[in-house]
């Protein structure tokens, strides 16, 4: 089965999710119940027909009996026969669809109508199990909004009008309100702006820019209404380029096929030629050779050889794995990604929002010549006049708060604030503000890589506050656990400053880390890793800028709680709780699932070989083969249920 990307915008709900088997059935866009209607109809008609046969009802003879079972066959058989025919037209003759078709049609030819319907019905049930497994994963993922801005507020004919971003021309002026996404790349016409660019760059700190600075589509306006002059068409904007990279990276993504398809390529032609041999070879070795008798035996052999138990047992195992993962807050978009996860030996991760919380907190307070509480009262009085995210972090200081008020507060562009608090002149800002006012600061402040707020009171340096993004609670244990489960190569790639990236990587014991990267830089780093065929790469991230890398990696993992829409849509695995430790659990669940799947394969294949030998010798009938498959399927169900009961530590 080929690895497919799921377009979540096309999903209406879990019950309306369309399951398209790769080379299999299309169950339509109706409700979940409608998906099962064909199998239910066939099953009901089969049971009625068997009862009529058993009680030897007089009217249930000849053409009525043939027509009854023929109608029972159509709901489950017609899609398979059609798929087999389409495959033949494409040059792919020996598929499981071809085998199912000739075996069941052959059963009708020799008059074994109930057996023909039963075999195809079991195949349909296997398909439904696979559909249920995929749809369960889909149904747990919310319908996501398109990340692209839907409209642009453009200035035309003396007023602002809402139009599609695609209709805005270069040189036109657009207005962006607070909280809105910038729809197109451009130049800032307003005096200043505070933008959230985390989705584009991964930079955790909001970007404060001045007039005539470049702004990029996809950034979010945080503070006040701004105006921008458009410098590029929508198709050339930063957000459009990123989405295009996602599409191209998806096309380059490695395709994983499930075992059943690979096995069928060998199994099906072998079985067909063996059936031909069973029909004709006895002519040379048997004295009383009767063509019809040996044809009958060959068709029974074909019916027995249908891979029903295999088709059922394999998706059952994956269904159990997908269900177990969902219960643990991990959503796989398909069974093939469970397989791929078992092979991961290289993990590449983003920083902001992945191993850090993506929220500013006070990390350190250092007051020079002041009591800390008093120092913070002066600082908070000033920051109450600001709406900057760093100011909000400082105002979360949990002590007694401030009863001081700031007056004559003014903002010095690109440097900070100045004002009067409790009769004292106060400066709050960066090193440039201190230098401009001839205030000497401690040398240690130059070595601090995180965001730092410097404070001067009455022209004397009074201290500083370090603001930083916090590590997630389970970040450190995640890295340790990853090494233990065999992920030997771990790399951190971030759009945040390299100094901050290196510091976080050091805290987590990650040896390779690179910061200050654009989306294309991250993609290039992963492409370099992919040049080594031994590297099986998983990438974990949460921003729009991570989407191209998520698509290019063997397994893309997105943080579902805080992650961007595009990242979640592009990823193969969604961590609903935003806990990086869930990646370790996902690997463990995948390996347990694969183990159980191979147990089911061994069981189904072993029984199949035994019954095939008996069938070739005329010692087994089609009903015995069908019920043998049912027994194997029941054992496979019980084995798969074990996954729901297993416990995995993060």
3D structure, described in words:
This protein is of the alpha+beta class. Among the domains are: 152-246, Calcium-transporting ATPase, cytoplasmic transduction domain A; 330-356 and 472-590, 3-Layer(aba) Sandwich (Rossmann fold), CATH 3.40.50.1000; 357-471, Calcium-transporting ATPase, cytoplasmic domain N, CATH 3.40.1110.10. Helix content is 47%, strand content 17%. The chain has a seven-stranded mixed β-sheet with strand order 10-22-21-20-11-18-19, with helices on both faces. Strands 2-1-3-9-4-7 form a six-stranded antiparallel β-sheet, with no helix packed on it. Strands 12-17-16-15-14-13 form a six-stranded antiparallel β-sheet. A hairpin with a 2-residue loop joins strand 14 and strand 15 (424-429).
What's the total count of β strands? 22
- CATH homologous superfamily of one domain? HAD superfamily/HAD-like
Q: Which whole number gives the mean pLDDT?
A: 79
Number of helices: 20
Task: Determine the fraction of residues in helical runs and give it as a percent range.
Answer: 40-55%
Query: What's the gyration radius in Å?
Result: 33 Å
First and last CA, distance: 29 Å
| Form type | elongated
Strand order of the biggest β-sheet? 10-22-21-20-11-18-19
For the record, what CATH class of one domain applies? Alpha Beta
In short, what is this structure?
It contains 20 helices and 22 strands.
Helices and strands in order, then pairings?
Layout: H1 32-54, H2 62-89, H3 96-109, H4 113-139, E1 152-156, E2 159-163, E3 173-176, E4 186-188, E5 192-196, H5 198-201, E6 207-210, E7 214-215, E8 220-221, E9 226-230, H6 238-251, H7 259-280, H8 291-305, H9 308-327, E10 330-332, H10 335-342, E11 346-349, E12 356-367, H11 372-383, H12 389-394, E13 406-412, E14 416-421, E15 424-429, H13 431-436, E16 451-457, E17 460-471, H14 475-484, E18 489-493, H15 498-508, E19 512-514, H16 519-530, E20 537-541, H17 547-552, E21 555-559, H18 565-570, E22 573-575, H19 582-616, H20 622-645
Parallel strand pairs: 11-18, 11-20, 18-19, 20-21, 21-22
Antiparallel strand pairs: 1-2, 1-3, 3-9, 4-7, 4-9, 5-6, 5-8, 10-22, 12-17, 13-14, 14-15, 15-16, 16-17
Helix pairs in contact: 1-2, 1-4, 2-3, 2-4, 3-4, 3-8, 4-9, 4-20, 7-8, 8-19, 9-19, 9-20, 10-19, 19-20
